[in-house]
Amino acid sequence: MNPVVGRAPGERVATEGLVPSLADLHARGASQQPTYADPAAVDAAVAKLRTMPPLVFAGECDDLKDKLAAVSRGEAFLLQGGDCAETFAGVTADNVRNKLRVLLQMAVVLTYAASVPVVKVGRIAGQYAKPRSSDLETRDGVTLPAYRGDAVNGYEFTAEERAHDPHRLVEVYHSSAATLNLVRAFVTGGYADLRQVHTWNTDFVRESSVGQRYERMANEIERALTFMQAIGADPDEFHRVDFHSSHEALVLEYEHAMTRIDSRTDTPYDVSGHFVWIGERTRQLDGAHVELLRHIRNPIGVKLGPGTTPDDALALADRLNPENEPGRLTFVTRFGAGRIRDGLPEVVEKVTAAGVDVAWVCDPMHGNTFEASSGYKTRRFDDVIAEVQGFFDVHRSLGTWPGGVHVELTGDDVTECVGGGEELAEIDLAHRYESVCDPRLNRVQSLELAFLVAEMLRQV
Ligand SMILES: O=C[C@H](O)[C@H](O)COP(=O)(O)O
Ligand SMILES: C=C(OP(=O)(O)O)C(=O)O
Ligand SMILES: [Mn+2]
């Protein structure tokens, strides 16, 4: 049997002995898992997934780990962004291109304005499962299971759609494959060529002042590229970019089935994405998610909310990266604008004092969510910026490196977060609120964030 391919039903699982079994993981009382009615259908979905080719290759995961090691050394900056929850219906060329385009624009702003190499990672091609505060949702007196992402159930508020369906896990694989295929084509096939800096901005420049600001910067970049070509630089150097996929490793059946033994090193990798992270709600030290992820060799992240103590962070680092391998572990802090300045310093201080090698990244979204009077979940652009500013200030005062930002965004002109240069108000939210889970920055807000972060980076 080829150990990279997995097993046929009934055969030994290729990862046996190197990764805990699904039964062992569930025995830990895993939180935030689907509740499936039909165990045979779950087995069939898992068996099918085990036969599917990897979505990413272990060597690519190692490349990203090397880049994240540069982040942890203070030599690069991570830009990680995308939807809160991807949907199967959202796998269209326009949608994928628009998300990639805004990330490329943001990366160019950060690289050019702050002169720092930017590691680009999408919340894309696998971000289909959501932890929720409540198992149930009630509308007009009707109570149904909460929406847990397209990986688990449908968004439509009917009993049929909200039932947890294991076959959806196979659909996650196919949707991720289609998305990643397009992303790979875009980033290597010319769309991401640095000489396209202007093209990414068309249909945008006239409409917003941030688009115009970007346009001025793109003119400067173009002149610099022309100069470099004139002095003999290889134009192929500008042709492609490195871009990696990431998602929260939440549904154990999916992540376990996609964990394979790398034939180069005989070690396990979760080949469903380059980088996977453990959410704030599933990072229990003895929990199933920490147990699974401590066995895989991908670069991994852990979200740290405002309740995190220095000892929690140290214990997680010890469990997930006992050899202190650079680039292996990223702590994504999401304290909220009001708590970051008080809560973050002692965590960073003690982790640093213990000699733990980690990349520190700021998620300025998940600690700043509130419900507008209209009922929409939203976030204030000013709170997002205030948390990033707090993150930079804390790291500057401790002499540590603010290694990146992790944001929920989209390339479309949605109206989900309030504020920003367009001064979106709560009353505007209904106009184009399309997220099926958390509110995302739209294209203008995302680019504004990039310019503001570039200024903060220049001052580090
Ligand atoms: O994306 C993160 C979580 O799934 C989300 O913030 C939970 O939101 P809820 O409180 O509406 O369940
Ligand atoms: C669920 C998420 O975040 P957290 O685990 O930080 O709440 C998320 O990133 O969508
Ligand atoms: Mn979210």
From TrEMBL:
Binding-site list for Mn(2+): C84, H366, E408, D438
Pfam family of this protein, just one? Answer: DAHP_synth_2
Q: InterPro entries under this entry?
A: Aldolase_TIM (IPR013785), DAHP_synth_2 (IPR002480)
List the keywords (alphabetical).
Amino-acid biosynthesis, Aromatic amino acid biosynthesis, Cadmium, Cobalt, Manganese, Transferase
The pathway entry for this protein reads as:
Metabolic intermediate biosynthesis; chorismate biosynthesis; chorismate from D-erythrose 4-phosphate and phosphoenolpyruvate: step 1/7
Which one GO biological process term can you cite for this protein?
amino acid biosynthetic process
Q: Which cofactor does it need?
A: Mn(2+); Co(2+); Cd(2+)
Signal peptide boundaries: none
Q: How is the cofactor bound here?
A: Binds 1 divalent cation per subunit. The enzyme is active with manganese, cobalt or cadmium ions.
Keyword presence, Amino-acid biosynthesis: yes
The UniProt similarity line reads: Belongs to the class-II DAHP synthase family.
Name the record gives this protein: Phospho-2-dehydro-3-deoxyheptonate aldolase
This chain's source organism reads Nocardioides islandensis
